[in-house]
């Protein structure tokens, strides 16, 4: 039995956010300009960084230890970015994909221009905003053990976060079309069962040797070891409309990681589900979200989304209870299941007048809605 670390794991988030014109709500290509404003507007606690396209920015929040802190960190990051981009006549909105037609502009940096040239239309068409959660690990061995044990639950997290039904001005019929666009990248998606750091590093080296990914940053696994921090980075989720939903997704990721680490320390083996099966589970979650059925990891067959999510909550409940987060997490998850998902809200906004503008306008309100309080 391996020694168990008992300290609470820190967790941090990175939100990719869409930049829109304050008047027209059309995508606004000022990402590089906004990232350069970061040192002057955030006071060092948050950071703005460029992504592939000028119409988006990534807001990196500092690591936190509680759900309440995480909600506040996300709200602060959104407010700082919104205030900064206002100088360029813009707003930030938590949409994983632009609902209407858009021709993105690649950020004019050498590496990103190489990405554009190397990947062609895939790069030119990719304007997607994901939600990345970093959870502290005590060793790379522990990190790989966590990745092996959480992989079967990542489709359920994707379904809970699903917030991108519109693409190019039309309803894609998917709850998370962002995930469909994102998995066009050759290294994106579920990973195989590793069982060791050596196997993880070997696959990463073999991928880099193909010269398909340009560098290690393009190893786009749904969950991976961070190349910069002692963390596991879970990258499967859509960016969420509401800050409390984002924070709860992050809390679930941390609880999954802690549960997995305890299983590893106790010698409990993971379920080595194959990558083709996990891809099918993720596709299903991307299509349906939480409005229908999900694949139950226990059986590998469809079951009511509410029941699968409940099994996820049961799986991590001991950790959530220990950390005093169970009530808040279950409350927000219940709201998502009862019709407050991002995908459902976008479709309801569109249905009022069948105008894409209304989708972005309503998402803007949700992005900056700070009414929810932990324990409330």
Automatic annotation (TrEMBL):
It catalyses: L-cysteine + L-glutamate + ATP = gamma-L-glutamyl-L-cysteine + ADP + phosphate + H(+). The keyword Magnesium does not apply. Keywords: ATP-binding, Ligase, Nucleotide-binding. Its EC number is 6.3.2.2. It comes from the Bacteria. It holds the Pfam family GCS2. Transmembrane segments: none annotated. InterPro entries: GCL_type2/YbdK_subfam, GCS2, Gln_synth/guanido_kin_cat_dom, YbdK. GO terms for biological process: modified amino acid biosynthetic process. GO terms for molecular function: ATP binding; glutamate-cysteine ligase activity. Belongs to the glutamate--cysteine ligase type 2 family. YbdK subfamily. ATP-dependent carboxylate-amine ligase which exhibits weak glutamate--cysteine ligase activity. PANTHER family: GLUTAMATE--CYSTEINE LIGASE 2-RELATED. This is Putative glutamate--cysteine ligase 2. It comes from Corynebacterium maris DSM 45190.
């Amino acid at each position: 039995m391996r020694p168990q670390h008992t300290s609470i794991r820190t967790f941090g988030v990175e939100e990719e956010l869409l930049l829109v014109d304050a008047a027209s709500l059309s995508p606004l290509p000022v990402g590089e300009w906004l990232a350069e404003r970061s040192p002057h507007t955030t006071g060092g606690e948050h950071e703005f960084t460029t992504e592939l396209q000028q119409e988006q920015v990534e807001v990196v929040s500092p690591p936190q230890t509680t759900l309440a802190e995480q909600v506040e960190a996300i709200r602060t990051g959104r407010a700082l970015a919104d205030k900064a981009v206002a100088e360029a006549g813009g707003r930030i909105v938590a949409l994983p994909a632009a609902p209407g037609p858009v021709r993105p502009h690649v950020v004019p940096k050498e590496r990103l221009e190489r990405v554009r040239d190397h990947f062609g239309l895939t790069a030119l068409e990719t304007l997607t905003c994901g939600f990345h959660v970093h959870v502290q690990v005590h060793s790379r061995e522990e990190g790989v053990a966590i990745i092996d044990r959480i992989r079967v639950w990542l489709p359920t997290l994707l379904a809970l976060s699903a917030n991108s039904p519109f693409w190019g001005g039309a309803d894609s019929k998917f709850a998370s079309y962002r995930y469909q666009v994102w998995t066009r990248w050759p290294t994106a998606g579920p990973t195989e069962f590793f069982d060791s750091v050596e196997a993880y590093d070997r696959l990463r080296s073999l991928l880099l040797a193909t010269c398909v990914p340009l560098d290690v940053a393009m190893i786009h696994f749904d969950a991976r070891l961070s190349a910069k921090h002692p963390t596991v980075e879970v990258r499967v989720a859509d960016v969420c409309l509401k800050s409390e939903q984002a924070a709860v997704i992050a809390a679930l990721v941390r609880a999954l990681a802690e549960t997995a680490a305890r299983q590893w320390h106790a010698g409990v083996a993971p379920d080595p589900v194959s990558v083709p099966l996990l891809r099918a589970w993720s596709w299903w979650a991307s299509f349906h979200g939480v409005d229908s059925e999900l694949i139950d990891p226990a059986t590998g067959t469809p079951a009511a989304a509410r029941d699968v999510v409940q099994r996820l909550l049961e799986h991590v409940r001991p950790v959530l209870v220990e950390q005093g987060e169970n009530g808040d997490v279950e409350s927000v998850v219940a709201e998502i299941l009862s019709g407050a998902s991002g995908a459902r809200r976008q479709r309801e906004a569109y249905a009022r007048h069948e105008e894409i503008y209304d989708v972005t306008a309503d998402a803007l309100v949700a992005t900056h809605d700070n009414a929810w309080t932990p324990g409330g």
